[in-house]
């Protein structure tokens, strides 16, 4: 059953990137992240009350709570970096870098969680790294050398924090109903996101957000909430080194949606990189 949750997570995560890209187009990325988090928080706590897990809050150990808070903090940092990168770069380039967090997550799972790597996994990691490199290269037609690469800095930071999120979340979610664990983490993300917005005094920009941006920010928040609920249910029941690669197949959904709705096309080199990423992810499942 956890495999279905993992694939559900990938589907909704893939939708999130494109919906968020449209939502942050005319909105400050930090403000958009904070607004999205409100949607995720409301949705995640609604699910807590639907399944009745609010009655188990007092059974959460201090150890689990600490790791849930750390996981939420890592998620908040990853989000802020990711949506800043999306604002500066294209979905087709930012997403592969962010999804490369799979490689770091697997290494951390080997080291911290004691999950044993296989030969197939090592082959998958190599293909993932090669595919990511190909996907972030300039198009063959770009000969000016003036491409703005500032998005890459934020995308790399996003990947690092995303990897930490998975490991910390895996540790913190043990022995806790997955919806409740997700809801607790989201509180931490909300505090961080709105703390930064208030510190930067960007909350005053809310009145400037147009109707279209509001709709897509809300939709991306809903998609994120669904992705999280599926992801942490899968993470609770399955191995991190298998759940994470499946979740990262969301890149296929993202690329398809970015082509349909944002008209972003892949170069031949980037398409080859995408095939490498997909092949590497499939190998990790073995």
UniProtKB/TrEMBL annotation:
Q: Which Pfam families match?
A: EamA
Q: Which domain of life is it from?
A: Bacteria
The residues covered by the EamA domain are: 2-136, 150-285
Which residues does UniProt call coiled coil?
A: none
TM spans, by residue?
A: 30-51, 63-85, 105-130, 151-171, 183-201, 213-234, 240-262
Q: Which UniProt keywords apply?
A: Membrane, Transmembrane, Transmembrane helix
- According to its record, what are the GO cellular component terms? membrane
| Cross-referenced InterPro entries | EamA_dom (IPR000620), EmrE-like (IPR037185)
Assigned protein family: Belongs to the EamA transporter family.
Query: PANTHER family under this entry?
Result: ACYL-MALONYL CONDENSING ENZYME-RELATED (PTHR22911), SOLUTE CARRIER FAMILY 35 MEMBER G2-RELATED (PTHR22911:SF137)
Report the protein name in the record: Transporter family protein
**What is the protein's species of origin?**
Kineothrix alysoides
């Amino acid at each position: 059953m956890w495999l279905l949750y993992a694939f559900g997570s990938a589907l909704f995560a893939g939708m999130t990137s494109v919906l968020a890209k449209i939502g942050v187009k005319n909105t400050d990325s930090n403000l958009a992240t904070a607004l999205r988090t409100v949607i995720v928080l409301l949705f995640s706590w609604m699910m807590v009350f639907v399944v009745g897990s609010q009655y188990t809050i007092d059974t959460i150990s201090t150890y689990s709570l600490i790791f849930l808070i750390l996981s939420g903090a890592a998620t908040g940092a990853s989000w802020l970096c990711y949506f800043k990168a999306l604002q500066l770069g294209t979905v087709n380039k930012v997403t592969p870098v962010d999804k490369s967090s799979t490689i770091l997550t697997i290494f951390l799972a080997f080291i911290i969680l004691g999950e044993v790597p296989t030969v197939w996994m090592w082959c998958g990691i190599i293909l993932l790294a090669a595919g990511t490199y190909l996907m972030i290269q300039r198009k063959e037609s770009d000969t000016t050398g003036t491409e703005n690469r500032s998005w890459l800095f934020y995308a790399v930071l996003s990947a690092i924090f995303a990897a930490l999120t998975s490991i910390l979340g895996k540790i913190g979610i043990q022995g806790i109903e997955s919806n409740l664990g997700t809801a607790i983490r989201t509180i931490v993300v909300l505090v961080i996101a709105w703390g930064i917005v208030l510190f930067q005094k960007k909350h005053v920009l809310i009145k400037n957000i147009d109707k279209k941006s509001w709709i897509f920010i809300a939709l991306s928040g809903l998609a994120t909430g669904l992705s999280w609920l599926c992801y942490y249910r899968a993470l609770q029941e399955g191995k991190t080194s298998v759940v994470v690669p499946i979740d990262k197949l969301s890149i296929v959904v993202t690329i398809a949606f970015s082509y349909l709705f944002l008209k972003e096309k892949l170069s031949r080199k980037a398409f080859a990189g995408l095939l490498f990423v997909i092949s590497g992810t499939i190998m990790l499942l073995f």
